[in-house]
Design a protein that fits this description.
- The protein has about 450 residues and is of the alpha+beta class.
- The protein has a single domain (about 25-60, about 105-280, about 335-445), classed as Outer membrane efflux proteins (OEP), CATH 1.20.1600.
- The chain contains 10 helices and 8 strands.
- The strands form 3 sheets. It has a 4-stranded antiparallel beta sheet with strand order 1-4-5-8, covered by helices on one side. It has a two-stranded antiparallel sheet with strand order 2-3.
- A hairpin with a 5-residue loop joins strand 2 (about 75-80) and strand 3 (about 85).
- Helix 2 (about 25-35) crosses helix 4 and helix 9 runs antiparallel to helix 10 (about 410-445).
- The protein is elongated and about 155 Å long.
- It holds the Pfam family OEP.
- Keywords: Cell outer membrane, Coiled coil, Membrane, Signal, Transmembrane, Transmembrane beta strand, Transport.
- Belongs to the outer membrane factor (OMF) (TC 1.B.17) family.
- InterPro entries: OMP_efflux (IPR003423), TolC-like (IPR051906).
- This is TolC family protein.
Length: about 450
Amino acid sequence: MKKLLLPLIAIAFTFSAANAQEKWSLEKCINYAKEHNIDLQLRKLDAEVQANNTTQSKFDLLPSLNGSTSYNFSYGRTLRADNTYGDINTQSGSLGLSAGVTLFNGFQKYNSIKQNELDLKASLQDVEKAKEDLALNITSSYLNILFNKELLQVAEEKLKVTKLQIKRTEALVEAGTLPKGTLMEQNAQAAREELEVVNSLNNLDLALLDLAQLLDLENPSDFDISIPELPVLNATRSMVDPESVFINALEFRPEMKAARYRLESSEKGLYIAKGQRAPSLSMSGYWGSSYSKDFPEYGLDANGAPVIVREEMKLSDQLSNRENKAFGFNLNIPIFNGGQVNRNIANAKINIDRNKLYMENSKNALRKEIQQAHANARAAMNKYFSSETAVSSTEEAFRYTEEKFNLGLVNSVDYNQEKNNLFQAKSNLLQAKYEYIFRTKILDFYNGIEIKL
């Protein structure tokens, strides 16, 4: 039994450890955020409320049907059936059904349905906009982690080079080729570079924490991301003209769709306001009956005079005999309502103008964002390829300086300066690379291309 149990425990432990160290891809981060982000959930709830409003406006076309019932107790002096007063305790009740339906009201209900449908479409586009903004923020944080991971590798590589050089310097100092002060300077440089490694590691931890908090993870301590295959960066990539991106974005960007839906909704609001000038026609009906404990049943005596046959008429007979029915039409013609209808129409026109300006402002903002994204992407591309050239030339300079240092022709200060220049150039290249990737992703985002790595 123990022989069987131990392997099972080991497998379970391995499986648990693997799950704890599971690395998140960009796609997984985005999908998780779409399901758990609270701000996005609030947007979805707003859309659900609007969906309920739309459904209700459709149900408003149906007739209304309401039931009512009451039961009362009364005490005190009252007039008896024999036309005398006395103390009587009585009980009575009633029940009824009422129904009504609007036959015509200037198409206000019809236009309300259309308006609510347009408002619902706008709310759904707000949800899509929130999803895209969230995906963009996650992509930025994700790329920042990748940048800090590579920056840590550069710092570790720099320290590794220094430690190798320390070993060579120790041999040269022992041989008397270099003074002991050179070795001390190299050790001090290694200490500074170890601090750079620690700082890079801290920056990486902070970048991971930023993304974990953006995802609202409860325990970010084990959080890590997978390293994707990054897109190939080359100078032959042609960037789409920003104006063509803008024209394309006008059709599919959710904020533009939402603006169009809200403009159309305000136009329906004008029709609703104008509908208040039209007469409204409604139909209603009622059925009801009542019961009283002191309601007697009368009959005729031998002389044909009315006499009380029973002190209390049976419930079924009372409901039947005291039944009341009504049916009718109601025509309401607006003549003067303190100018309220005219003000509603004027405000509806203002709302249309406001939404036209809002839509125009959204267009201008979108055009500026695309122009800025295009300019940033082009600048990032130029910066990346310039940084590549700088790294290449700095590597050559460092190799030359390193050879001279090993021969004792260059002091440690100049050597360390050249090495710092090399790794600073590599850091600049990393920064330029991830900025270039992110800027091109933003441009693709405005061009309708899904964000992926």
